[in-house]
């Protein structure tokens, strides 16, 4: 098997084609060709390596999955990016995803885009529902949303949960609507269709299980949502879109404006803020649920109108990792 190996000397990258093969019980790796100091040089030099064309062909997917993210990362590094105290060194990696999403994915034919987005929404629906306790697994989710096959021994609530998420995602994907009270309430209503008839902001008090914060009292929900939207409109041009979306998501969850479906609605709003700013959508994965909830808890120290880096740094870093890893896994 061959793959591309990157060496960093000083501040410069050097790329090599490396061969890895098993000899007895040992795996031997060695560099067999120098490919250059940029991804453009790597692409050109790979085409010239006729001696290893069979090995390169067999490892095409692995090589391709290395080249594409690094190609757009190099482009991102050439941009004059404003430093971000929340994202730090992850900023360029996030921008690389945006560049690929805008310059490559959106230039694909519409059918191919639709197929990739379908894969995304299946993963998104499965993960956002699973975080809230939905027991439909990924294979069952795929059969349901792709083939219309209803999983056995699952409740209608769980089935509607995934179907609603898919429908709402595609409804908002190309939407240009402003985020306001009406938009949020209608988004929640769509996600809760056939699940919970209690639409609109709650007016009664609730207790959020296993949380270290008190949700906004029912009589103050509308007031706090007004304040959150004012905060959003004030900061949407000051904060990086990923930071903006992350902080908004946390503050929304802390208010907990609905009787049910707050997590699902909050994560859909998170994705909508990214899409409105021409960034790719994000998946918070079930397997990282523990880290996600812990990062949210650490941000609970922040007030409704505050976005202190000390409180939000870990959550923004976590969300950046989720975006970067999830994007290259699904959109390449």
Give a description of the structure:
It is a single chain. With 332 residues, the chain is mainly alpha-helical. The protein folds into two domains: 2-78; 105-331, Orthogonal Bundle (Fic-like fold), CATH 1.10.3290. It has 13 helices and three strands, in the order E-E-E-H-H-H-H-H-H-H-H-H-H-H-H-H. The protein has a three-stranded antiparallel beta sheet with strand order 1-2-3.
Note the topology:
Layout: E1 2-9, E2 12-23, E3 26-36, H1 39-48, H2 53-58, H3 60-77, H4 91-103, H5 110-131, H6 138-147, H7 156-173, H8 181-191, H9 221-235, H10 241-255, H11 262-276, H12 289-299, H13 309-331
Antiparallel strand pairs: 1-2, 2-3
Helix pairs in contact: 1-3, 3-4, 4-13, 5-6, 5-7, 7-11, 8-11, 9-10, 10-11, 10-13, 12-13
Summarize this structure briefly:
This protein is mainly alpha-helical. The protein contains 13 helices and three strands; from the N terminus they run E-E-E-H-H-H-H-H-H-H-H-H-H-H-H-H.
What tags apply to this protein structure?
3 strands; single chain; mainly alpha; 56% helix; Fic-like fold; 13 helices; three-stranded antiparallel beta sheet; 332 residues; 2 domains
CATH class wording of the largest domain: Mainly Alpha
Overall 3D form = globular
Number of separate strands: 3
Q: What portion of the residues fall into strands of 2 or more residues?
A: 5-15%
CATH architecture of the largest domain: Orthogonal Bundle
Radius of gyration, CA atoms, in whole angstroms: 22 Å
Tell me the count of domains: 2
Write the CATH homologous superfamily of the largest domain.
Answer: Fido-like domain
Topology as H/E string? EEEHHHHHHHHHHHHH
Residue stretches low in confidence (pLDDT < 50, at least 5 long) are none
CA(first)-CA(last) distance = 21 Å
Proportion in helices: 55-70%
Strand adjacency order, main sheet:
1-2-3
CATH fold topology of the largest domain: Fic-like fold
- The computed structural class is mainly alpha
Largest sheet: 3 strands, antiparallel
What is the mean pLDDT? 96
Please, how many helices?
Answer: 13
